[in-house]
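Human:
I keep going back and forth on a fold encoding question. Comparing notes only helps if you start from a blank page. Show me how you would write down a chain together with its backbone fold. Write it directly below this note and I will take it from there.

Assistant:
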Amino acid sequence: MRMYDIIEKKKFGEELSKDEINHFIKGYTYGNIPDYQVAALLMAIYFKGMNEKETLELTLAMAKSGEMLDLSDIRGVKVDKHSTGGVGDKTTIVIAPMVAALGIPVAKMSGRGLGHTGGTIDKFEAIDGFSTKMEKDVFVNSVNDIKIAIAGQTANLAPADKKLYALRDVTATVDNISLIASSIMSKKIASGANAIVLDVKTGSGAFMKKEDEAFKLAKEMVSIGTGLNRDTTAIISDMDQPLGRKIGNGLEVIEAIETLKGNGPDDLLELSVTLASYMVKASGKVKTVEQARELLEETIKSGRAIEKLKQLVENQGGNKDFIDNIDLFPKAKIIEPILAIETGYVSHIEAKDIGIASMILGGGRETKNSTIDPCVGLVIEKKVGDYVSKGDVIAYIHGNDINKTKIAKEKAISAYEFSDIKPKNKQFIKGIITKDEIITN
């Protein structure tokens, strides 16, 4: 089998066979096929597309390119959750304790962030002593004992995806639905979950800027998961402004703690409970998402969810006192207000610019070797629809470097737009896609 023939076949829009897809994934992973040939194939895929069968086979081939985690020693249905990313997205920290508090195993493999936001691991590490380095047997035993563990992804999880993504990034072939869907789902399949709930963001701060494109991606991923015998659901949610009010690793953990104590922002609570409801339903514990929602809300009211977070933190070497006393979190040296430059209603907040401001401060990574600062970030005081007078505080910036704080502050100010007319309320959750139906709001 020749790579030349595979490239030519896709160049003319023909369907690639399972063997052809496996050949190019295996060959590229092991260094037997050069970058320039794979780049040519990626460009052919970009323009000619892949059908459902091809996308499924590509996903499975990438998942099998490295370690396939076997979580069969964990009792019960393992449900994983994945977000396509956004600004202020700390839902895992809220969801995982709620679901685990209901006795449902949460075996979460998470990563670090690259770009304007920190990953779940970066956020948890704002808690003194917390570690996600766990041997598999410790990970499995933790989930069986306390129903929850958060571990870092192994280096050998879907290595083909890592190589392909790096090549897509420099050949302008990132934004193809089949390639995006297979990239995300290959890691989820390799992680060993029985069911998967996806949070697909859309808007200015999301990877999928247009709503119809977000729906296409969600449908594609649900189709892949279903085709590989995983109960898969996708929720499409708004990312036209930051989620919640706190952006930055330590600040986001604090907001997640506040949410689990019943004092969090409405948008973060609503999204977390919606995602978690589908996780609980997929576990088989209840028959409807409405029943799941009631149980999840009770974990917050009763304090069981926050107690489960403490248990998680203590089990992984962290100081659980941080959960009871948020003043223990490290604080930035510089905390300055950001003032409204106009009078009127906040009509738009460019979420991406807020994320970039956080990255400039040290809350994200410009390169793989960048160091995360857990103290820095922004606290949003005014969101879309709020009325402000010129000079009112619209946000606070938290920084540790004078020059970085100044640059980030200018970026954050430019993210705000104002209007004399109050903007219409936008639907926060745009739709829900399962294997059986598409619900649009």
Q: What stands out?
A: The CA atoms of residues 50 and 366 lie 32 Å apart.
